[in-house]
Amino acid sequence: QLARAERDLLAIIEAFEKERTAGAPEAWEASAGKDFPALKGRMSPPVEGKRVRGFGESKHPEFGTVTFNPGVDIEARAGSPVRAVARGKIEYASLLPGFGNCIIVAHGQGYYTLYAHTSKIFVKKDAMVNAGDVIAEAGGAAVEAGNAFHFEIRKSKKALDPAEWLGR
User: What pLDDT, on the 0 to 100 scale, is given for residue 118?
Assistant: First the structure.
């Protein structure tokens, strides 16, 4: 299931990248794309809560299975506001199998952030957002099923470690 969800996500991002590189950049993208890398190490977290699983491989303590987490999982209180971490354009705002209610924000120059396992989505595709804008609400069925809020940062299709980007 995890592998299928990751393949589906990569296909979506690949389609965004083809569209992005096919034409002239939109006006917002030129400045936002230059601003995004400058946030490394000082980005505000998208939601308040405890990080319960980090980026990379982890071994299940009971079953011994090894899985790769392309982001961070945050145990957030149900109803907590989920905020955009940087200025960008909403590319996806809907249910995504394996990710629940999911939002993907394009930040220019091939940078994307993903916000998954939300209970409510407050934005629509093609909307522009600024850092700190509330885009969703954490919790709901995902939390009840044991799925913490999930956050990823990608450069094109490559997953980047959010711990290197998020401030302390």
Answer: 93
